[in-house]
Each structure stands twice: as C-alpha cells, then as structure tokens.
Structure prediction request, 189 residues.
Amino acid sequence: MSFFSRVDLPLEELLSDTSVALIEQTLTPIVLPKGYRLLEDKEGSKHAYLIKKGIVRIFVTTECKEITFEFAREKDILSTSLGYFYQSLSYECFELLEDTTLYQIDLEAMKQLFYESLEICNWARQFTELNAIKTQKQLIDILVLTPEDRYLHLMKHDKTLFQRVSLKQIASYIGISPISLSRIRARIK
Prediction:
C-alpha cells in the first residue's frame, strides 16, 4: 500500500479508484509547524493544499487589523482563487494554527488531469460548487444574522472550533470585536 492510498479526498466517494490514483500522483506530503504562514497576501502560488491533519486560519490584512474569514480543517482544500483561476497574486493569508500535515497539490498537473478525465473535472466542479455555496451562506449570515445569532450558530454547529482557535480569531470570524464577543458570552451564560 502506498503512502497516498491513505489520502481522504473531499467528495472521494464520487471518484473511481483509477481517478483517485491519478490525483494522488499530483500530491506531495508535507508537515509544517504551528504558526507557519503557508501563503502571504500578495504572493502567487502554483500549489493548493489538502489538509490531512490540522487547522488553518484564512484571513486578509488591512491597515490596522487582520480579518479572519475562514477556518480550513481536515479534508479541506486550501487554494487562492485568484492564483488558481487567474494566476494572479493572492489577497489572503494562510496561517497554520496547529502542527499540520498537508498534501501539496501541483496545480498544473491537476489542470492537466481535468483535460484528460471528465470524472476528475466533474469532481473538481462539484467541490468548487460546494465551496461557492458555503461562501454564499457565510456572506448571507453576516448580512442578516445578529452577532449573537452568528455566535450561537457557531456554538451549535461547530463547537469543536472553540477548542482549536482563539476567541480573538472567532470574534474576527463572526465579524465583531473581542470585547463584543466577551459581552455576548457573558449575556448568554
């Protein structure tokens, strides 16, 4: 059994063993320490990453602060959309919040597989669609839910996140200050 036969791809059940084997050929295992910045803003990247173990904070920087807009975990794929689709510099940063095991994905090799395999191309399309829906839901939640409702939703549907990231990062993720988060937490106890 090869090292890659243990890869747990998102939506893997949609792929034949042959397609999984082809995708595995584009992967290189890497282990990086907590705190490592996998991607800085204004960088380009020829790689995406599949997270085997660990959690990654995805954020943007402004003149005065960092704004967290996503946490990626096991089975998630990290990729800068601008880099992937347009070969442009990124606007986001990826910071490892735990010691993390990743599979580095060679994007050029994956793109070649899209041309060669309709099954792999459709798998990537479905994965992209799911991420677009997730992003849209997150945007709508920010627009229509109160900060307290966003916090309560996160507590109900993603309680383990609170064991893996700081409250400051959770506050940023739900679009409030750490002080506001403290007030919400005190009010709902």
